[in-house]
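[step 3/7] inverse_fold.run input=structure_tokens len=226
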């Protein structure tokens, strides 16, 4: 995966110049239509549109370099949800499945580390979903939103049809798509980090065969017309 200078975009040529649509590289949602028409070469216009309007609406994952919207960006560790699963505060040890003390950093039964460690040892000790929601992020935010596969509009889960382009919308939420790309507990839906043998939320053993992890198989990703 290479990092890119801007989010995915569509350029619309115009007599006077260009207009751009920027798309989240994980969810496919477009965030903002750059209304102004910029003169000059495409390359130059793109740089200007991105700098002035585009980049403020996106976050860059520091692991994969993708530009993504708030809903799929983990502000605790500055990575997109494809790179880093949400880490629920564990109630059970991921290694031995025993119940653990709330504030423990290591399992008192087997000694395993309980805290999720992102890249470069960056800790997210008490990831509170409530706190993340203030930044427009977290499982609950993702469960409330889906993306129109035709135009990229971010819409509430209850809408059956896209208000912008009339496309019939599937019921798949951002969270459902996210879940497809990670291991999840077959009992309680908690996303699991690689190597978990027990669910940190319900303590049940992880059945690797039963979960629907599909790598690089996300249907309906937005096209990048560069
Ligand atoms: Zn990433
Ligand atoms: Zn343990
Ligand atoms: Zn649409
Ligand atoms: Zn579970």
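[step 3/7] decode complete -> sequence:
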């Amino acid at each position: 995966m290479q990092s890119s200078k801007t989010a995915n975009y569509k350029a619309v040529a115009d007599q006077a110049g260009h207009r751009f649509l920027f798309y989240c590289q994980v969810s496919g949602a477009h965030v903002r239509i750059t209304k102004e028409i910029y003169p000059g070469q495409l390359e130059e216009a793109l740089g200007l549109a991105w700098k002035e309007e585009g980049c403020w609406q996106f976050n860059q994952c520091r692991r994969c370099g993708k530009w993504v919207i708030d809903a799929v960006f983990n502000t605790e560790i500055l990575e997109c949800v494809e790179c880093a699963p949400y880490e629920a505060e564990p109630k059970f040890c991921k290694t031995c499945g025993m119940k653990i003390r709330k504030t423990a950093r290591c399992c008192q039964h087997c000694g395993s580390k309980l805290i999720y460690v992102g890249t470069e040892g960056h800790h997210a000790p008490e990831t509170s979903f409530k706190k993340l929601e203030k930044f427009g992020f977290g499982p609950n935010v993702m469960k409330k939103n889906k993306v129109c596969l035709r135009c990229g509009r971010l819409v509430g889960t209850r809408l059956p049809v896209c208000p912008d382009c009339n496309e019939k919308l599937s019921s798949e939420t951002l969270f459902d798509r996210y879940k497809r790309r990670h291991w999840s507990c077959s009992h309680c839906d908690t996303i699991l980090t690689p190597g978990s043998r027990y669910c940190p939320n319900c303590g049940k053993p992880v059945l690797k065969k039963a979960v629907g992890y599909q790598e690089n198989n996300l249907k309906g990703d937005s096209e990048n017309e560069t």
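[step 4/7] annotate
The helical segments are 42-54, 129-133, 139-143, 174-180.
The two ends are 16 Å apart (CA to CA).
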